[in-house]
Write a structure and sequence with these properties.
The complex is a heterodimer of chains A (about 400) and B (about 425). Chain A is an alpha/beta fold and about 400 residues long. Chain A has 17 helices and twelve strands. Classes of the chains: A alpha/beta (about 400), B alpha/beta (about 425). Strand 12 of chain A pairs antiparallel with strand 6 of chain B, so a sheet runs across the interface.
């Protein structure tokens, strides 16, 4: 038996985060064994504590499944940072930490006396990552923002939609889910660097600069050739057919993509080798691209009377890439996600039984464990009396002064 | 932190976060971004290519007038800072050489179908005989085990099964993806993270291990609202196109608006969310003689769009704002919007991203010389900034087999094929 140790065991992270990017970065670290302490306050609650959906539609700060999903596997301490004692306790917390993450607009942490320059005084080998929209320097440094516009500015929205219409963009705040992946990479790389060199580091993580990595080939193409990439619906210039086709039932769809010529043979066979599909022109990609619209029409005629799962299974058995467009109801019962125990059902003191999603990584010797999200300030007393070593009387005195609001 | 037995990389610690580690990257487009990110972090990343080149060298967009094996701009964008070695893993000799190379490596990244490397005698256990503390990161579409293990994938199929596809697109058309493939980028970032984490763990405990990435789970994460809406309220989330529909009356306002030379993104929030942007936009329109009496009379913090009849919202706000946006360019709206604190943003195409002043001011772009190109290649710089250049784009993509001699010589062997 290999020893089973969580991969970030013994690492403490203090999060001054809000919305999605900061909190999700540390939530993932928590699932891999880091001790994550989220510093928040009732005087200005994390905005996603107030965002839908709420369990059974009951609106309160501990009942948002959106907050829960992005804040699994961490503790919450309520500290009013505008109170001098609140700031003092935050500094004492940081002095015990390996990593600090903040996701406020540039300058906010420094204004509270909690900028990197302040924090390294109490923790010289600190790793600190600041994740704001546009970075810590430049004319836009103090511009607030959120994921939906960032998806537009970084070039992703423009490429999602139909060529004959205005872009629709991907659902919601797309960049909020790519930036934390890169933030976590930066943090764990810095942890290993510190392990080897003893040196901490400050990381200026502009969300815009992470996001444009996801359109890099199109940017290089424009810079080099002047060609501007366009949205193409579900078409692909290097595969045909390549689309999303209607199936039996209301709003049911299956994606089918023929990436290689041999997959076309599989699709033709699955469709029962109809006369039109035996055209030798269609055996090669060029021929199929030339007849793209006609192919889509014909394939839709074949799929529309069939169940989406039936089409997927039939085609996958013939090694043709095909997949059901799962909706929110389907996901929980998806056989692969169920097999992987991707969703963990946890008992939350306010929400009751709710699902938490895991990170997409699994380690053979260091299992991931997803714990429920915290209520606001749930661990304040535990952390103050334990880690920070406050006496009970001192804790009560500070509480009466509003430090733990 | 705990300090147990250390296992270090094969080269000295240098100027990058992950300097001193050697990474071998195998197979196709799925693993390109993972290797690129580890190279940015300072690792020595060796792309192992079959004779004739990696299949990803054939992926568009292609640069005209360039040697076809080097012309893929997707390849150029996602292979910066790597080395290239040709090894034919279909032959005994190639596999033996790969095992010798693996004996010097810290990480192997691969994306073959589950079971493929084992069948070639190059599975994790085989490689561990050559290098017991090896870290191996496997990028899969759906997992290395389970009911979808042998499913064949493509970007669009992963979008579909993850739930992300279903919620993207206009209401009256099929669901739609981003036309630039995304799944392997999310999965690649995760694989790089997994490799770095496993190295950290190995450094503390001496233990190597396997890391498996599921692209399916990666994209499910992006579709965040779909599963939780079902879990919280038993409701299925449906795609809404570029519009925001607010209950209880279902009043709908656009998110994407045409402007003089393209599109801008603007959320018409009610209440406190719109309390800064909306009055500022009202004044801006008025300053330019395009004011709306309805907007000028509005007590913005009290605006409840969900309780405003559609016709009233259209006539009073949407139509005047649309006319105002249509009369201005993207840059006018973005630049002046920043000054006036109106949250209106450009829906950038590739040319717009390259024109962003903020990115220029921060010296973000890198320009790389490549022997197959007459012009320099312009690419995104590092995704995170540090003072000491611990994360940097460290050079152009390698030409096919460029480092055969160098890498094989490091094994004490003569120059490659």
């Amino acid at each position: 038996m290999e020893k089973q140790t969580a991969i970030l065991e013994g690492v403490r992270m203090v999060e001054f985060g809000w919305a999605v990017v900061g909190p999700l970065t540390t939530s993932w670290a928590g699932g891999f064994g880091a001790e994550v302490i989220k510093v928040e306050t009732r005087t200005r609650p994390d905005i996603i504590r107030s965002m839908t959906p709420f369990k059974d539609d009951k609106v309160n700060l501990d009942n948002s499944l959106f907050f829960g999903r992005e804040n699994a596997s961490k503790k919450s301490i309520a500290l009013n940072l505008k109170h001098p004692q609140g700031k003092e306790l935050a500094l004492r917390l940081v002095a015990t930490a390996d990593v600090v993450l903040d996701s406020y607009t540039a300058g906010v942490m420094a204004k509270w006396g909690l900028g990197y320059k302040d924090l390294v005084k109490v923790k010289p080998d600190l790793i600190m990552l600041s994740s704001c929209m546009y970075g810590q320097t430049g004319a836009l440094r103090s511009m607030p923002g959120y994921g939906v516009p960032l998806t537009a500015i970084s070039g992703l929205t423009y490429h999602c939609g139909w060529p004959d219409r205005k872009p629709c963009g991907p659902y919601g705040s797309y960049t909020d889910y790519l930036v934390p992946r890169l933030n976590l990479l930066a943090i764990v790389s810095a942890l290993d660097h510190r392990r080897r060199t003893g040196q901490g580091v400050y990381l200026d993580a502009a969300q815009l600069e992470a996001s444009v990595q996801f359109v890099a080939p199109a940017l290089l193409n424009y810079a080099l050739t002047g060609r501007v990439a366009q949205r193409a619906g579900n078409r692909d210039s290097e595969a045909a057919p390549h689309g999303v086709y209607p199936c039996a039932g209301k709003d049911r769809w299956v994606a089918i993509t023929v990436m290689e010529d041999r997959q076309w043979k599989g699709l033709v066979h699955a469709m029962g080798s109809p006369e039109w599909a035996l055209d030798p022109e269609l055996e090669r990609l060029e021929g199929r691209l030339a007849q793209g619209e006609e192919l889509d029409r014909r394939i839709a005629q074949w799929t529309e009377s069939r169940e989406d799962h039936e089409v997927m299974e039939l085609l996958q058995a013939l090694q043709v890439p095909a997949g059901v467009a799962n909706d929110g109801r389907d996901l929980g019962g998806n056989p692969q996600l169920v097999y992987d125990r991707y969703f963990s059902r946890r008992e939350h003191p306010v929400m009751g039984q709710v699902d938490y999603a895991a990170h997409s990584l699994e380690f053979s010797a260091s299992p991931q464990r997803v714990e429920r999200s915290p209520c606001l300030g749930e661990h304040t007393e535990e952390i103050c009396l334990g880690l920070l070593g406050l006496g009970r009387e001192e804790y009560q005195r500070l509480d009466e002064q509003g430090v733990f609001k | 932190m705990r300090q147990d037995r250390r296992v270090e990389g094969t080269a000295p610690v240098g100027a990058g976060f992950l300097s001193g580690y050697r990474v071998l990257e195998l197979a196709g487009q799925e693993s390109l971004f993972a290797g690129k990110l580890l190279a940015d972090m300072g690792a020595e990343v060796i792309k192992v290519e079959p004779p004739g080149g990696d299949p990803a060298r054939l992926l568009g967009p292609m640069a005209p007038g360039v040697d076809p094996v080097e012309a893929s701009l997707l390849w150029q964008a996602l292979n910066t800072g790597k080395k290239s070695v040709i090894l034919d893993l279909e032959t005994y000799k190639g596999r033996d050489l790969f095992l010798e190379l693996a004996a010097t490596a810290d990480v192997v990244i691969e994306a073959y179908p589950p079971g493929h490397l084992e069948a070639m005698g190059l599975g994790y256990e085989d490689l561990c005989r050559a290098r017991p503390e090896l870290v191996m990161a496997s990028i899969t579409a759906f997992g290395e085990d389970g009911p979808y293990r042998d499913f064949v994938a493509s970007d669009l199929v992963i979008w579909a099964l993850s739930g992300l596809l279903y919620i993207c697109g206009d209401t009256d058309r099929p669901p739609v993806r981003i036309s630039l493939p995304q799944s392997w980028l999310h999965a690649g970032a995760d694989a790089a993270t997994g490799a770095a984490m496993a190295l950290f763990h190995r450094g503390r405990t001496g233990q190597g291990q396997r890391v498996v990435v599921s692209a399916l789970k990666g994209l499910e994460r992006v579709a965040y609202a779909s599963h939780i809406l079902w879990d919280a309220r038993g409701r299925v989330l449906r795609r809404q196109g570029s519009a925001l529909r607010i209950p209880p009356m279902g009043t709908t306002t656009p998110l994407i608006w045409p402007c003089a030379d393209g599109f801008v993104a603007f959320y018409l929030f009610g209440g406190q969310m719109g309390a800064v942007s909306n009055p500022a936009l009202t004044k801006w329109m008025d300053d330019e003689g395009m004011g709306s009496e309805y907007m000028k009379g509005m007590d913005w913090p009290r605006l409840d769009l969900g309780r405003t009849p559609q016709e009233e919202a259209d006539k009073g706000i949407v139509e005047p704002v649309a006319a105002f946006f249509a009369g201005h360019t993207q840059r006018q709206l973005w630049d002046e919007g920043v000054k006036r604190r109106v949250m209106v943003y450009p829906v950038n195409d590739a040319s717009g991203v390259l024109a962003e002043a903020q990115l220029k001011e921060r010296g973000f772009w890198v320009r790389l010389a490549h022997p197959a190109f007459e012009q320099e290649l312009t690419l995104p710089g590092p995704f995170v900034k540090t003072e000491d250049g611990l994360c940097l784009v460290r050079g152009a993509a390698p030409t096919l087999g460029q480092h055969n001699q160098e890498v094989l010589a490091s094994l004490g062997l003569e120059g490659g094929r």
